[in-house]
Amino acid sequence: MSQEQLRCSDGTVLTATLWTPAGEGPWPCLLMRQPYGRAIASTVTYAHPRWYVEAGFAVLVQDVRGRGDSGGDFGGFAQEASDATDTLRWIREQPWCTGKVGTYGFSYQGLSQLLYSNAEHLPDALAPAMCGLDERLHWASDGGCHWWALGLGWALQLAAQRCKRQGDRQGWQAIRLSLENGNFLRDGLVLLERFDPTGMGLQWLQADPNNSNHWRIHQPPSELWTRPMLIIGGWHDPHLNGVLDLWRRSAAAGGAPLLRIGAWTHLNWGGGLDQVQLDFFRRHLCGQEPTAPEEAVLMEGSSGQWQARAPQACSGQRWQLASGGLAARVPVEGQLLDQSGGGGSEVVIVHDPWRAMAGRGGHLGLEAGPVDRRDLDARTDVACFNTLTTDQPIEVYGRPQLELEAAADQPGFDLCVALSVCHRDKRVEQLSTGFARFLGPEAQLSQRRSVALQPLLVTLEAGCTLRLSIALAAWPQIAVNPGDGSQPRSSVGADHRIITVTLKLGDAALSILPMVGAN
């Protein structure tokens, strides 16, 4: 193991740790570029670099500009294209490298391997995980709602690292304490304005998630899309839509991307994909034949078994919503009927900000993944709709999408939707969630509304039912709508309004659409 430094084209020095196999080189190199301190090496989701070294690869983990021991100022994703190009060029000049370079990493490390200033030096193979190119849609918001808890939490983590780098121990401690006691949900923006006023996370939280202007969509060199790619995602990861977009772009460009989606959260991969990733790099950097199928393979959420699936396919169900008006009073009164059934009536939900509905689990939860929401569905500010009990297993695969007519009595409301399976033991296991925010005078008009939920692949056992739950808040996953037509910028305050929303069920439907191409 050794410390390596390279000088970028603008003179900034970047620092990295290099691990190499025993004996004489050169070796193909695996590169990770990340902002959290290179010693971590993303071991929360991957094997330590030494494991890859034992398989015959050199591994270089680099502190990005302005982080760890690297020079310069940290500027978020905007800085990475030039530095990545300089790094690839430098690696290929080193005597310990064969000239073959693969990149890997998730989240920030996923996007940092996709950005280059030109096509002269691109990796020979890439394994981006849990990331996307659109900062608005893949990193900061769902359905016009900021990722509140997640967005604040991540921005504050970056801000704390900035304090540490500057020697501001009090600032670091203030941020850490707010995260530990939960006060960041109320005070997070103030802390960011104080300790990281130019940070990427604060810029996102201050921008309008309903307006694509002023949001960055990164554009890698077109040649990158035909390079071998292993693209990794999780059913309960907030960046899944970004992962699917990467797969779509590569496939549309004529590439042959491999897709792996596990029943995972952002940080918990249930054992991970190190062996699959190693086989991928052995093939494309060393010329070895693969030992695993090179096609889209997805993990079925209930069994944990891997299955070959086409991302453009889906199970295709469509249910209509029906209720006698008591779906928000009696959790089993509302119905999900197949196409031969008929919808009807309307349901009224009242949102009281004093006791706003909680958001739990799912892809935006601080504790993400499947959860039991039986107690939430027992509340009277959520409307529930249920299928008939199944007499045989039923697979649900694709992106759930709800469409219905709705209007509020205030110029702002949210629809917070969950899809769950009701088990025979009375558990209500939440599988997927989705959000949509409506602001301004149009919120008070009875109009067609659409809510896209997180994609899923799950099989319902015989004797179970599927449940759709519709609420008007999901705190703290998204900030509570104030009901005055503005985007929320804090926790609930005295000016938050009670909101009454009428759901008209005549043409309301829940459809399962393809993950890719659904919208």
Write the layout of secondary structure elements.
Layout: E1 2-7, E2 13-19, E3 27-34, H1 49-54, E4 58-63, H2 80-93, E5 97-106, H3 108-111, E6 125-129, H4 135-139, E7 141-142, E8 145-146, H5 148-166, H6 169-181, H7 184-195, H8 200-206, E9 230-236, H9 240-252, E10 258-265, H10 274-286, E11 297-299, E12 306-308, E13 318-322, E14 334-337, E15 346-351, E16 371-372, H11 374-377, E17 382-386, E18 394-408, E19 412-422, E20 428-439, E21 447-452, E22 456-460, E23 465-471, E24 499-513
Parallel strand pairs: 3-4, 3-5, 5-6, 9-10, 10-11, 14-17
Antiparallel strand pairs: 1-2, 2-4, 7-8, 11-12, 13-14, 13-24, 15-24, 16-20, 17-23, 18-21, 18-22, 18-24, 19-20, 19-23
Please explain how this structure is put together.
It contains eleven helices and 24 strands. With 519 residues, the chain is of the alpha+beta class. Helix 5 (148-166) runs antiparallel to helix 6 (169-181) and helix 6 runs antiparallel to helix 7 (184-195). The mean pLDDT is 94.
Termini Cα gap: 48 Å
Outline the low-pLDDT stretches: none
Structure class: alpha+beta
Instruction: Tell me, briefly, the overall form.
Output: globular
Radius of gyration: 24 Å
Structure summary:
This protein has helices at 49-54, 80-93, 108-111, 135-139, 148-166, 169-181, 184-195, 200-206, 240-252, 274-286, 374-377, and strands at 2-7, 13-19, 27-34, 58-63, 97-106, 125-129, 141-142, 145-146, 230-236, 258-265, 297-299, 306-308, 318-322, 334-337, 346-351, 371-372, 382-386, 394-408, 412-422, 428-439, 447-452, 456-460, 465-471, 499-513. The protein is built from 11 helices and 24 strands. 51% of the residues are buried.
